[in-house]
Amino acid sequence: MEIRIIRAGQLTTVQDLGRFGFRAAGVPPGGAMDPFALRVANSLVGNPENTAALEITLVGPEIEFTADVNVALGGAESDGLPAWKPVAVRAGTRIKFGECTRGCRGYIAVSGGIDVAPVMGSRSTYLPAGFGGWEGRVLRDGDVLPLGRFDPAGPRTLPPWDQPGACGWRIDPRILPNYAPAATVRVVRGAQADQFGPGLFGGEFTVSPHSDRMGLRLLGCALERTHDQELLSAATSPGTIQVPPDGLPLVLMADAQTIGGYPQAGHVIGVDLPIMAQLRPGQTVRFVEVALEEAQRLALVRDRTLAMLREGLAEKIPGHPLP
Amino acid sequence: MTFAPLGDSAVVVTVGTTLDESTLARVRALAAALERETATGIVDVVPAYTTVAVFYDLNTAGVGEETPYQRICRVIEACAAREEHGWPDVVRQKLGAETGRADAREIEIPVCYRGEFGPDLGAVARHCGMSEEDVAALHSGARYVVHAVGFTPGFAYLGGLPEKLFTPRRPAPRTRVPAGSVGIGWMHTGVYPLATPGGWQLIGRTPLRLFQPEAQSPSLLRMGDHVKFRPITIEELVAWK
After folding, report:
1. Other beta carbons within 10 Å of A12
2. Cα–chain-centroid distance for residue A12?
3. Chain B contact for A306, CB < 8 A?
4. Which of the two residues, A323 and A178, has the higher pLDDT score?
5. Do B222 and A269 touch (CB under 8 A)?
6. What average pLDDT does range A170-189 have in this prediction?
7. β-strand B2-5 against A205-207: which pairing, if any?
8. What is the rounded distance in angstroms from the CA atom of residue A185 to the CA atom of residue A287?
9. Mean residue pLDDT across chain A
């Protein structure tokens, strides 16, 4: 079973939730920029949360499905497929995802998953070193990707997507992150937070076009540092907010280097990384500080919410192989 | 040891304040001990310079009312204490600092310091006031230690470059440095495992692959390893399998 990429879109890659345990080798976790959206899209089609899917960026692909499958789009929205609900797609159907109408990065989950060979335990694509995912690169027109096996009972439980009675429900929007074009994002303090005063929390920053999977560059009021000393390189994490000499914050994301020498003013909390991932160039973000205990509590609540979602889906869709 | 959160899913443990052999050995030993702890929700361990960063799973159950952060700090402290006190005193005295070096290795890296493989060898020689042969001899005569791995997969920051070889980075970086290039960046030396942009002065090339995603241990060099460079000829470089 396979899917054919008729048009690849702007930046489409195979991603799962990332590869863990290799930071000491200089390999970052990578994986979906918006892990929440990937986990939900996979759950909607009956896949384990960590199944490999397509991450699309701003302009999505055109795909031909050569077998009966369930498909779900999570994260960014597009006219090609309704978001946040499972859709049964018949063999031979072509879906054109086109320009994203909301958000920046979407996840196209297909029942059975994208069946590429794992590298270091993950099917994610690490573009800076060219390995993982589909040949270590972005998808191109004409690529044909294999799909994994899926319980044959699954796809036939949903009415076909283009007929009346197609899945009339979607997941409760209250469980979604607070995605917004003018976003408020929560941050815990970084090791050098004291050297920047309140600057990080002073006002709005704008996402620069020079942003990518390694990090989001922010434009706005430059942060002034009260200390001068050079720092030894130290470990970083996705969400780490570095402040280079020009004072403009850089929010590290999935493919960022594992260690770095710039001062760390703060760290975006895990549950708000999806909000950062959905910001397009030109959109804005302001930061508010929260305590570590709150950040960790929110992460645990989210995991429980997604577990409940999987249980609910198993009841809602007869034959849905969950949890 | 001091602890500080790194975001909401990691903690940085500072083991010492000076970058010396003893601190590096203790960092390496703590990282190795934490990597062996399998049942505690530790997801990743990153030793670098004087610190060890520990990434952990928030869902791993703790004791009583403790937060995930409190739990992981307790686990790390217990692990470090076992590492410290696990050896009887008489054994520790005999082994001395060797206890921490149990996992560190001596790695030899063959390097060709000639011609097109060392495009900046002349510039370094002129800056340091010596001949190209002297640069190669000094560089390969020293013993280095890996301070940290990062920048790219498999890229090791090496400490121990002789001061006579300190050379500033190139004024403008190259857009593409060939994989295997050996360079000098002021007080650091290292090898670029992959073809990437780079601003260091390139003095040689190694045929070794320092990063192999399909290997059991994808990065050839690990924090705390000792490294020596061995000069080879162009013929040996070209013929290397």
Report:
1. 26
2. 12
3. no
4. A178
5. no
6. 93
7. unpaired
8. 5
9. 92
A30-71 residue pLDDT tens: 999 999 999 999 999 989 999 999 999 999 999 999 998 999
What is the phi/psi pair of residue A131, to 5°?
-135, 160
Nearest CA in chain B to A302: B59
Query: What's the pTM value of the predicted model, to 2 decimals?
Result: 0.92
Tokens matching residue B114: 């000639």
**Which pair of structure tokens corresponds to residue A2?**
């396979």
Alpha helices in A218-281 (DSSP H): 273-277
Q: What is the distance between the alpha carbons of residues B163 and B186, in angstroms, rounded to a whole number?
A: 9
- Is A194's Cβ below 8 Å from some Cβ in B? no
Residue A157 pLDDT exceeds 60: no
pLDDT at B197: 87
In this prediction, residue B39 carries a pLDDT of 73
- Tens digit of each residue's pLDDT (9 = 90 or more) over A93-102: 999 999 999 9
Best residue of A39, A124, A188, A232 to probe chain B, by most B CBs closer than 10 Å: A232
Q: Does A254 touch chain B (CB under 8 A)?
A: no
- The interface pTM score, or ipTM, of the predicted complex is 0.93
- Chain B residue with minimal CA distance to A266? B7
B172 — pLDDT class (breaks 50, 70, 90) = confident
Partner-chain contact A191 B12, CB within 8 Å = yes
Query: CA separation (Å) from B11 to A214, B16, B102, B123?
Result: 22, 16, 25, 42
Across the interface, do B223 and A23 touch by the CB < 8 Å criterion?
A: no
Terminal Cα distance for chain A, rounded:
24
The 10s digit of each residue's pLDDT in B177-206 is 999 999 999 888 999 999 988 899 999 999
Rounded to an integer, what distance in angstroms lies between the CA atom of residue A88 and that of residue A68?
A: 7
| Interface-testing mutation among B2, B8, B186, with chain A (most A C-beta atoms within 10 A) | B8
- Chain A hits for B47, Cβ within 8 Å: 24
**B19 and A CB contact within 8 Å:** yes
| Interchain contact A25–B (C-beta under 8 A) | yes
In tens, the pLDDT along A60-88 reads 999 999 998 999 999 999 999 999 988 88
DSSP state of A319: T
Helix/strand/coil (H, E, C) string of B157-169?
A: EEECCCHHHCECC
Interface probe for B, chosen from A17, A124, A131, A135 (most Cβ of B below 10 Å), is A131
pLDDT at residue B121 above 50? yes
- The amino acid present at B88, given as its one-letter code, is P
B38 touches chain A (CB under 8 A): no
Residues of B in contact with A132 (CB under 8 A): 213
Size of interface A-B (CB pairs under 8 A): 135
